[in-house]
Amino acid sequence: MTGLTDRGRLALALAIAVYLIAWAFGSRSLYPVAVGLGLAVIGGRLWVSLARQPVSLRRSFGRAEHVEGDDVKVGLEAIPQRYPGPRSLEVVESIGRLGERRARLSRHGRFLLARYVLPAVSRGRYRIEAARAVFEDPFGFARAEVQLGAESTFLVYPRLVELNRLFSQAGGAAQTKKRVLLHRTAGFDLHNVHEYQQGESLRKVHWRTTARRGTLMVKELEDAPHDEVAVLLDADGRAVVGESFDVQVRAAGSILRAHALRGRRGVLTLTSNPPESCHVATFDGEWRLALELLAAAEPTGSEPLERFLGRDASPAAHATELVAVTASLTPDLANALVERALARRQTSLVLVDAPSFQRREPVPLRDPALLRLQAAGVPVAVVQRGDDLVAKLSGIAEAIAAHA
User: Fold this and answer.
1) CA nearest 380: which of 340, 337, 316, 339?
2) Buried b / exposed e across 43-64, counting CB within 10 Å, b at 16+?
3) Quick check: 7 and 141 in contact, CB under 8 A?
4) Residues pairing with 347 in the sheet
5) What gap in Å lies between CA 50 and CA 134, rounded to an integer?
6) Which fold has domain 167-183+226-403?
7) Helix axis angle, 331-342 relative to 368-375, nearest 10°?
């Protein structure tokens, strides 16, 4: 689309006005001014029409991984389809919740290059869309825009912390290991079906396949232990205050990472709408997928956390150990966690005190549900605004307070 800018329309109106004044008063000296100004506007529009052309845009984001709070450097490389093309070009990009960014590209050989910086970017998935190239004449009288369509996405990962120990292991490493080995859950998954052979148990008959094929079919089962650790991240947006959900994400990711580094199988479940899960068998493999899920996590959920503990299809319901990360401790959630703990299934809670993110000075959290959890032997880590996440998730702060 090519057209005059506000400056161009004003200059054209001024040229017409000067011409009319020259004609009305018979001032020949004003004719060249009016004609020259009008020709400049028309020439600018012709210049833009000729310069307007398709442009190929490539984008780079510097180093491969960005962590929340870091600056993100965006490099742009444009290649005009016709040579020599313009000596400079303005590109306008729309970057999700960060809004529009403008960059002036300058010629370097055959390419037009530019770089701009997004300062202190928060965690999230950012999609760059609606990029367009803007062509203008040197006087700014005319402008043309070309949609580039060079959409891309970049992730900003949560800033996780290194944990050498966890608050849930306050009872001692040996006791924890013994409890894990004693209550390690295992199960059998359906691997295949085959025709019944003489001597096989009729308990293995797969009746659905038998009815479909009209012949007796039995199941082949394989031993498949359930995930040892389930990290359940509450994404209920009603409890979020300020940056409280980002702290939840850091806590959940740091705990899952600590278990993955120790070689423990785990699963991350996000109670968003719709819910999302990611199984982590090894740190070198699936951990990257879990980290991407944490980077893109948004508090879009609306279901209470305790409902995910009561569902048979929920991975968290079958795990040996459960770590719930939430900003809202309701009586129903406390009941569900206590019931699980009384069934000798290792359970712990990370409670992010969301109201502390709107207060200048955090105050001690007093909640009867917390006392009930502690009485039932459920380890609890309470995180408030400004707290050292390593000290809280390692249990160091509570240990120092207990011996003070």
Assistant:
1) 337
2) ebbebbeebbeebebebebeee
3) yes
4) 322
5) 13
6) Rossmann fold (3.40.50)
7) 0
Q: What is the largest CA-CA distance in the chain?
A: 118
Distance CA(404)–CA(399), nearest Å, equals: 9
Quote the pTM value. Answer: 0.74
Give how far Cα 190 sits from Cα of 198, 205, 218, 224, 388, Å.
Answer: 21, 12, 10, 10, 45
Tell me the C-alpha distance between 381 and 404, whole Å.
18
Place of tokens 């509570």: 398
56-157, superfamily in CATH? Immunoglobulins (2.60.40.10)
pLDDT tens, residue order, the chain (404 aa): 568 888 888 988 998 998 898 888 888 888 888 899 989 988 888 877 877 787 888 888 877 789 999 999 999 988 887 776 777 888 888 898 888 898 888 888 888 899 999 999 999 999 988 788 888 888 888 888 888 877 888 999 999 999 999 988 754 333 334 343 334 444 444 557 788 888 777 777 887 788 878 888 887 765 444 458 999 999 998 889 989 999 999 999 999 999 999 888 899 999 999 999 999 988 887 899 999 999 999 999 888 888 888 776 677 777 889 999 999 999 999 999 999 888 888 999 999 998 888 876 767 777 888 889 988 999 999 999 989 999 999 887 565 555 44
First to last CA, the chain: 72
Question: Nearest-CA neighbor of 249 among 310, 327, 144?
Answer: 327
Yes or no: say if 220 and 312 are a contact pair by the CB < 8 Å rule: no
H or E stretch at 180: helix 173-182
Alpha carbons 158 and 268: distance in angstroms, whole number: 15
Count of all residues that appear for the chain in the document: 404
Q: Identity (one letter) of the amino acid at 131?
A: A
Residue boundaries of the structural domains of the chain:
2-44, 56-157, 167-183+226-403, 188-223
Q: Name every residue whose Cβ is closer than 8 Å to that of residue 165 and which is 6 or more positions away in sequence.
A: 394, 395
The two tokens of residue 320 are 């040996």
